[in-house]
Specification:
It is built from eleven helices and 18 strands. It is α/β, with parallel strands linked by helices.
Amino acid sequence: MKTRGAVLRQAPGKFEITDLIVDEPRQNEIRVKMVASGLCHSDDHMATGDLPVAVYPVCGGHEGAGIVESVGPNTPGFSPGDKVIFSFLPACGKCRWCSSGHQNLCDLGANVLVGSRWEDPTSFRLQLEDGTPVGQALGISTFSEYTTVAVDSAIKVPDDTPLDKACLLGCAIGTGWGSAVRSGEVEAGDTVLIFGAGGIGSAAVQGAAHAGAARVIVVDPVAFKRDQSLTLGATHAVASAEEGIELAQSFTNGQGADVAIVTVGVITGEHVAQAFSGIRKQGTVVVTALGDATAVGLPISILELTLYEKKIKGSLFGSSNPRADIPKLLDLYNAGYLKLDEMITAEYSLDDINQGYEDMHAGNNIRGVIRF
């Protein structure tokens, strides 16, 4: 069937709204009519080329939710009309990683930047009207009015779920909240430093607060984001890394934060080094942000790494298990503990996607959302 989507024809580049053809769902696939999609910085990393993809054109979007339009043959568990939230990382439930409780590292993730079906790198679910294959961002392409996806990427949710808010559970919330709770293992009474208070950082703030952190210190140069973080669970918000580190040390007899989480828009080694200097002995730096995929090297003291037993951990999707954690986070939202509405600061049409990203770069949004 015909649909419209936002595609990148090259990187660096901007999203272009164009007509697409989306496949009928095969076995273990569903076709979904999109309701909402978050404007995540990761898609902007694709546009700048920081996060290279294998196939152009590529239809963007990986944080979204919608309603099942049709179901492939011999595909149990889904029916037309079901509401689903996408997990930007698939979970097969069978590989070593899924079986050991690390669904975020599922082996199916090997092809997420190829944009093809998992089992066949030459088979694509989207194409241009002239037949040119179009890659799917993370296998789902939530910047399309309709998209066909593997059931490995879809989580069915209750009929009363507000998908225009719950779409954030597909990336921002799980990534940020999990960076604090799962990857950072924040404990009650901890002092936590969070560098960057956009969509991911704001979710990390909530995760740290939910875990019982005594002090959640946000570092962000944008006053609007600092102010918003204080409504989401931050206890302090400052403009510079130096201020944040000094504040953390003042609360800990000069030791530093227990956990530092790096969720800046475009990460460099210097950001990691700043976080590293701000943690105590046996403290943890959680690296969640993305930047230039070719960059290497961290300007940190190896002696300090060894003698202070400091830890630096990468965090993909907040080390979460999406099949378990997305329903759990939805329950937290429904119970009033998790704030989603407050994180959505602007809504856009699909045609205004580039304006949404301009607003993100200008620091005007915590999370912008496309409403279809």
